[in-house]
Every structure is written in structure tokens, then in C-alpha cells.
Amino acid sequence: MTKPTRSAGFAVYPSARARAVHAVVVLATVASVAGMFTACRAAPPAEAPVRTAAVDTLTHPAWSRRAVIYEVNVRQFTPEGTLRAIQPHLPRLKALGVDVIWLMPVQPIGRKNRKGPMGSYYSISDYTAINPELGTMADFDTLVAAAHREGLKVLLDWVPNHTAFDHPWTVQHRDWYVTRADGTIINARDNEGHETDWTDVAELNYDNAGLRRAMIDAMRWWLDNGHIDGFRCDVAGGVPLDFWLQARRDLLTVRPDLFMLAEAEDPRLHAAFDMTYGWEFHHLLNEVAQGKKPAAAFDAYLARQDSVYGRDAYHMYFTSNHDENSWNGSEFERMGANTQPAFVLAATMRGSMPLLYTGQEVSVKKRLRFFEKDTIDWNGPSLAPFYRAVFDLKHTHDALANGAAGGDQTTLRTDAGDRVYAFVRSRGNDVVLVALNFGDAPASASYRDLRTPGKFTDWFTRASVELPVSGKIEIPAHGYRVLVR
After folding, report:
1. Which CATH superfamily is domain 409-484 in?
2. Tens-digit pLDDT profile for residues 364-416
3. 157-193 pLDDT per residue, tens
4. For residue 26, how far is the Cα from the chain centroid?
5. Which of 15, 106, 125, 423 is positioned for an S-S bond with 164, CB 3.0–4.6 A?
6. Where in the chain is the domain with CATH 2.60.40.1180?
7. Residue 85, strand partner residues
């Protein structure tokens, strides 16, 4: 996939890229990570290291075990584009089944080399301030307090890899940046260590201990003063893992139930992060939805995951987010008529914490502009009942809990061809059978060897269904069946 010209914070990651381990992380296994990772900003090695199975080394917050996450594009969420204007939407998001809101960056945006009239969220000129276009710190406090009253957790998008070129550090602490031979600060680098065309952001140098301390102090400031519950960390693979390990240790002293999400896909990062991105799965989902790959490819994907990730690793699975929408198109553009079976799969796969992006619940089909105002039209066709039903399913069934708390996943073999995929998740007496049809015609899928036969309930229609050891399941075109007991 070709990478378009754009600013930091919204890179496109094709599956090959997502599978590559990030070069700035020193080669080691998670089991021995504590003393082996060093601060490194060197160019990546020519070949990706051999991946070894990761070991679960951290404890997730109890509240995260059944959680669903929602990304708020603050600028585009309301006509006002402010923090205060988001607050009336919180009861609606709670009713939708959302547990966590992820706010895209709220700090001031740099003016030097700014892209577009409003600039990129990810070009930050002051880590401990609020972008005046979005409101005030008092507005932020009020929003977070209101979210907490609704029972919602709040993650703040954090940009540790680079700053705006007019951040005070570029003058006060020039040694905190990566420079060229002539002394000029380089543009931000991507997860492979290559300098990008993100000309509005300057690459930070984590060889410097002062930078590391200042970055952790800034993150702690938001826990102390913003009362947030954690961070989504942008281009997390571009920052040395030993920094993240130290940051997590320090921040846990302030927020024992801290939650950390990495914009990266590397099993070793789970030593410091509760959740990483499921890019490989996302691009595979696009390809299956488009008919470019058979549905059986999901089995190979799961086998690869099992070989390198610990059982308690969380993966954020999605059909859209701010990167995908703005640069690759909405889920309707990429997945056509298969948006709903794709999301059902993303929400029910083992290890998944599903993400819903701003406007998906009202069928937003346009690519939201990134550097200017482009307000969501909340009057589009509502998909709220669909998403609410999927999230209720996630909340209700032990088999679908996140990480090791969830049940095993076993493929259910059918004769319905390469556009149908079916599997069973089970934990104790809780069983969830998911059958998906990415094809243009209804499927009458004969299956065999169901290990948990008996009486089920169709989650979406509430009809009673009897399933023998071998039998048949009818699945609508571009549709799904979810049977539970």
C-alpha cells in the first residue's frame, strides 16, 4: 500500500508493515526485557528479527475486561468543535454500550510548517496545555468528570515521538531532538526509522535522559491534573521500549488502574502496554470483505498471533479509525456491503477490544478532512441498534471477555465455500457461535463436529435454535448469525 503525503499521527500500515517488528526496539524477548532494552535511535536492521512467543507480564485493570472503546475526533465531532460541545453526547455514547472514550490530542497545535488551515492534532507545541480552539482546561476537567459520572473511562491521545517545530524545546533543549549533519532537526521518522514527509513535526531523541524525564513528567501531569485513565500512544513503536517500561512503572504510582494503548503492533510492547493495534487483522478484514482473500485466512492469522503473543494480550480491532477514514476511506468505501459482518468479527475474535470511530453509528461515508473543519452529520442512517446489540453481546458473555478472561476460539468447519467463516467461543458453560457470510448470496452452511450441541438463542432475533453435532446454519448475504447459550 502506497503511503500518501500527510502529517504525523496518521500513517497507513499495510499488513506486511504491521507484521514487521519495529526497528527501534532492541532485540530481546519479553521474558528478559527488564534489563536488556537500551535507548536506541539508530537506523533499523536490514532484516526483521525472529519473533518468539511473548509472555504475559502485566495485569490489566479489572474495568477493561469487557470494555469497548470509542474514538472521539474532537474537531469534527460537533459544529463547535470544542470539548464542551462533546459533553451532551456522553449519555448517548454510554447508552450505545461504550466503556472508554479516546480523545484525539487536545494540546495546542504548532504554527511553524503547519499543514492546512488548522494543522494536525499530532503537531504539539505544548504538552501541558489545551488547544484554545477546543476550549480551556476547565472545559477538559468538566468533560472528564462528566464522563466518569456516566461510568466512562477517558484515554488521552499522546504524541511522544515528535513535537511541533515551534515547541519551546526546539530552542531550550535542542539536544532533545535528532539532527542532521548540518545541525538541523529532522522530520519525524516512521516505525521503520525512515524520515518522513511529516514536515510539521520534529523527531525527538530518546538517547537523552532529560527528554525521557520531561516526557514522563508531562504524562504524569495529565494524570494529576486531567484525571484521565490512561493514554493512547501515537507511533509507540518509534520510541524505545525501555522508556515505555519506565513510564508505566512511574505512572502506575499515580494511577494504579492505568490503561495504555500503543499505536504499534509488536508483541514485546505488551510488557508496557495493555493493548496494541490489530493492523494485520484490519487489512486482512478489508481483503476478505473485498473478495481478495478467502475467509479461511483468518485461521492462519490466529495461528500467527498464538505463536508470538501472550494469551492475555489485548488487540484493538476495528473497521475504521481516524487514519483509515481520512486516508483510505470509510468502511463503506473499503468493505462495501460487508461492513456489518466485518464488525461482528472484529468484536468477537479472541483477544479483541473493538473500536468504534466517530460517526460510524450514523453511517458516515465520507473521508473526513484532517487539516480543516469537516463536521460530522449526525443525521445519517442510524446503525446505533446494531452496534448496541454487538456491544451488549460483548458485555453479557464471558466467552467474549478481553484477553485471557475470554474463551477459546475454535473454527467450525462448513461446506459453504471461501466466503463463509464460522467459529465458536466458549468459557465454562457460556458458548457463542458466530457465522459470517461475506458473499453476495445467502449461504446454507452445512457444518460438522460442533463440540457444544444443543439449544441456542439467536442473539439478534431472540429466536430459539437447536443445533445438533452436525447440521446446517442459514446466513444472509453480507450477513451474520450469532447464536448464544
Report:
1. Golgi alpha-mannosidase II (2.60.40.1180)
2. 999 999 999 999 999 999 999 999 999 999 999 999 999 999 999 999 999 99
3. 999 999 999 999 999 999 999 999 999 999 998 767 7
4. 24
5. 125
6. 409-484
7. none
- For the chain, the farthest-separated pair of C-alpha atoms sits apart, in whole angstroms, at 73
Candidates 3.40.50.720, 1.10.10.10, 3.40.50.10610, 3.20.20.80; CATH matching 15-406: 3.20.20.80
Tell me how crowded residue 448 is: count the other CB atoms within 10 A of its CB.
11
Q: In whole angstroms, what is the distance from residue 184 CA to residue 198 CA?
A: 15
Q: Which of 102, 98, 121 is closest to 391 using CA atoms?
A: 98
Q: What is the mean pLDDT of residues 49-74?
A: 85
Burial 7-46 (b: 16+ CB within 10 A, else e): bbbbbbbbbebbbbbbbbbbebebeebeeebebbbeebee
- Distance between CA atoms of 464 and 484, rounded to whole angstroms? 10
pTM over 0.70? The answer is yes
Burial of 248 (0-12, 13-18, 19+ CB in 10 A): middle
| The pLDDT value given to residue 17 | 30
Q: Is residue 319 within 8 Å of residue 54, measured between CB atoms?
A: no
CA distance 441 to 437: 9
Residue 5, CB-side half-sphere exposure with 13 Å CA sphere: 5
pLDDT band at residue 55, thresholds of 50, 70 and 90?
A: confident
Q: For residue 408, what are the β-bridge partners?
A: 426
pLDDT digits (tens, 9 = 90+) for 213-224: 999 999 999 999
> What's residue 48's pLDDT?
39
State pLDDT tens for residues 97-141.
999 999 999 999 999 999 999 999 999 999 999 999 999 999 999
CA distance 243 to 246: 5
Residue 314 CB neighbour total at 10 angstroms: 24
Instruction: Retrieve residue 124's grid coordinates.
Output: 504539539
Amino acid in position 118: M
